[in-house]
Amino acid sequence: MYRLAAFDMDGTLLTPDHRVGPETLSALRQLIDREMVVTFATGRHYLDAQPIMAQLGLQGYLITGNGTRVYDQQGQQLHATDLPAEIAEEVLHTHWRTSASMHVFRDEGWLTETAVPEMLAAHHLSGFHFQLTDLRRLPAFGNSKVCFCAPHEELVKLQAQLSEHFGTRADLCFSAYDCLEVLPTGCNKGAALDRLSRHLGLTLADCMAFGDAMNDKEMLAGVGHGVVMGNALPQLKSLLPQLQVIGHCEQQAVAHYLQHWLRSPHLTYSPEF
After folding, report:
1. Is the pTM of this model over 0.70?
2. Burial letters for 124-138: b for 16+ Cβ neighbours within 10 Å, e otherwise?
3. Which residues are annotated as a binding site?
4. 3-state class (DSSP) for residue 10
């Protein structure tokens, strides 16, 4: 019997309009009632994810920034990883051949030089928003991650530049089709969940996890039971063919899966697509 359930937010728990449906909320509360440790593992900032959970009346552990931060149920920071200062300096000060907008995440918030109002729709529940600033004036220390946002084809070209420049000194990850992230080496949701599990006296084998994007890959592959969303990136599905694929986030597929699992944990789930 699994003792911890970890959930990606966008494209997994949240519907396409960035809300938590009533069936999903009910299923999460049932897990909590059964004393499952509920963890939300997201690329979002703590200042974005925590208010959403609070509005829903949910109290769980939080892995934010794609594993750069881990928080307990009271909001106490358990772990933090930042980009090495020299890497952050190079990302911020190198002239990349791209039209992608650059976004920097620090504990104090989301910083960018480019106002992209349409990006705020994803944060309507929390009111989280960017702060316009000169990124080259930011300190080299204290930057958890840097995101580049643009159409996918543009980011693929940028990924090649970044990979050639940094090699193994930083990790690159698509958290969505239109978002490419530069992260500290070895920093991902899977590593953060492993750290949290050990803090709780558990192992990854005691955990189940749900996700839809490449930033969920390590977490889904490492837990005792990983579940891939039907709307997941094709690359994720192809890299984890051994994992079960369920329905779409728009139909609250996580809720349907959990309802089945709570009733019959040892029976195979047959999703309806």
Report:
1. yes
2. ebbebebeeeebeeb
3. 8, 10, 212
4. strand
